[in-house]
Amino acid sequence: MIEVSRLSKRYGAKTAVDDVSFTVRPGTVTGFLGPNGAGKSTTLRVLLGLDHPTSGTALIDGRPYRDLSHPLRKVGALLDGAGPVPERRAIDHLTWIAQSNRIPRSRVREVLDLVGLGDAAKQRVKKYSLGMGQRLGIAAALLGDPEILVLDEPVNGLDPDGIRWVRTFLREFAASGRTVLLSSHLMAEMAETADEAVVIAQGRIVARGSIEEITEGHASLETAFFALTGGQVGW
């Protein structure tokens, strides 16, 4: 389970995240929605131990990420903008991650095949398309066969078949009793994938609940999103 409680993060005089609280339960895909600059990435970075909170907590099974004994086996993560060394081959990139986390090398081939990169395993990452790079990022997140996935814009650059695969995979992953926190700006896709949603605007939570609850009284998740956020871009 992911538990974010009274979380705030300030950078100098700017408040990126302001008293944010929400829970992501096992067995669900939870969408984390907000305009660009609303505080989504900052929240995820604090959750994954990449930034320190100004106040409050972001815990994974009751513990900070940095205190997890085997983090890659507990949490698989894909953050927008994170990527491997372009000159490195995909298989070497994943092998390095596996070895540093005491994961069997056989798992590297498993995840490459799983995300559809088996035939491109020995290509250098700089030759990958944007969609192939996203598939490689998802493969890295899956290396430890984690209980929790935290994914930031995982379908960015994917073709329709790739998007459908991600949707199906995440729903099956959650149906097995595991946990998914999914950040995306594609409302139609989120409506198809997520069970629950947390909406953030200008650093504060403006709505949370099931997709049905969020969209009640609105024609779609997209119209609900714009009504809740006012179409504004905050920190």
TrEMBL record:
CDD domains, per the entry: ABC_BcrA_bacitracin_resist
InterPro entries documented for this protein: AAA+_ATPase, ABC_transporter-like_ATP-bd, P-loop_NTPase
Record domain ABC transporter: where: 2-227
Transmembrane region(s): none
Keywords per UniProt: ATP-binding, Nucleotide-binding, Transport
Domain of life, per lineage: Bacteria
Pfam families linked to this entry: ABC_tran
GO MF term list: ATP binding
PROSITE patterns assigned: ABC_TRANSPORTER_2
Family according to the record: Belongs to the ABC transporter superfamily.
UniProt protein name: ABC transporter ATP-binding protein
Species in which this protein is naturally found: Streptosporangium jomthongense
